[in-house]
Inverse folding.
């Protein structure tokens, strides 16, 4: 769609598909994905629904230990994910039993009934990121060396910016390699999703990583939250080199007394999006 704010030729209506091993996560098989792929109207006919799917996750749940480790910075006291967790997340989304393989299958199935969609389906895949270590500090976390693992034979130390960049570029390479090996037929990889909703921790590496993603012929997507985030959000394009950003109004989150935020918050977010 084209209007005074520009044109996006890759995605039109994306949906967030939160996926992983947390007990609350759905298993994204054909049955669970179908309502996002097609829509049933009151008169019984169907049409295509979302054209793009953002497979994302902020944490990795280790079923053996019960630990929850973050795939992007979250808050104080956090356990940072390791290289093994990043690999486990990729194993998860590329499993033949769910996620991408099942999306490919369900789109193919409905093509038999609905024909080719008006816009070819796209997927946007989660970018796992270096995380600060918050062990032993319930209200704080910091960059430090922990047992993340090796990249190209080098033991990673995330107190060093160059190691954070190296690890993230390795992830991009591995994700793209795995995707290309699969040979999906009913959608294309549009780009990667920056899972952190603010850039207070990984700000130093954002533009370089996004430029690296661009070198792969892909795009970078981001969804910054509303409150106290302007210092990053309004510079999504010029400073941080994202291709597309959606600003969260966070209007749907109830206040402690059960009321919604003031409607002015929603209006302010809309105005900010139009301005920036």
């Amino acid at each position: 769609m084209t209007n005074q704010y520009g044109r996006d030729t890759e995605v039109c209506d994306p949906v967030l598909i939160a996926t992983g091993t947390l007990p609350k996560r759905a298993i994204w098989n054909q049955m669970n994905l179908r309502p996002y792929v097609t829509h049933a109207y009151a008169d019984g006919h169907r049409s295509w629904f979302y054209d793009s799917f953002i497979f994302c996750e902020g944490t990795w749940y280790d079923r053996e230990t019960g630990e929850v480790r973050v795939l992007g910075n979250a808050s104080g006291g956090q356990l940072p994910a390791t290289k093994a967790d990043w690999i486990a997340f990729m194993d998860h989304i590329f499993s033949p039993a769910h996620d991408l393989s099942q999306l490919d299958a369900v789109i193919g199935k409905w093509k038999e009934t609905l024909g080719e969609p008006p816009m070819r389906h796209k997927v946007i895949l989660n970018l796992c990121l270096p995380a600060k270590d918050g062990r032993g500090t319930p209200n704080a976390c910091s960059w430090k060396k922990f047992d993340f693992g090796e990249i190209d034979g080098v033991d990673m130390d995330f107190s060093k910016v160059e190691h954070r960049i190296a690890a993230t570029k390795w992830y991009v390479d591995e994700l793209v390699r795995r995707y290309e090996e699969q040979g999906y037929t009913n959608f294309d990889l549009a780009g990667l999703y920056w899972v952190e909703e603010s850039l207070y921790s990984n700000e130093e590496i954002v533009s370089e990583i996004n430029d690296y993603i661009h070198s792969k012929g892909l795009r970078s997507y981001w969804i910054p939250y509303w409150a106290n985030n302007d210092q990053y959000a309004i510079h999504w394009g010029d400073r941080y080199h994202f291709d597309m950003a959606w600003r969260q109004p966070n209007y749907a989150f109830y206040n402690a007394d059960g009321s919604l935020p003031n409607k002015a918050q929603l209006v302010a977010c809309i105005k900010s999006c139009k301005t920036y």
Remarks:
- Helices lie at 30-37, 83-93, 100-114, 161-182, 203-215, 230-233, 263-275.
- DSSP finds seven helices and 15 strands in the chain.
- The longest strand covers residues 187-194.
- The longest helix spans residues 161-182.
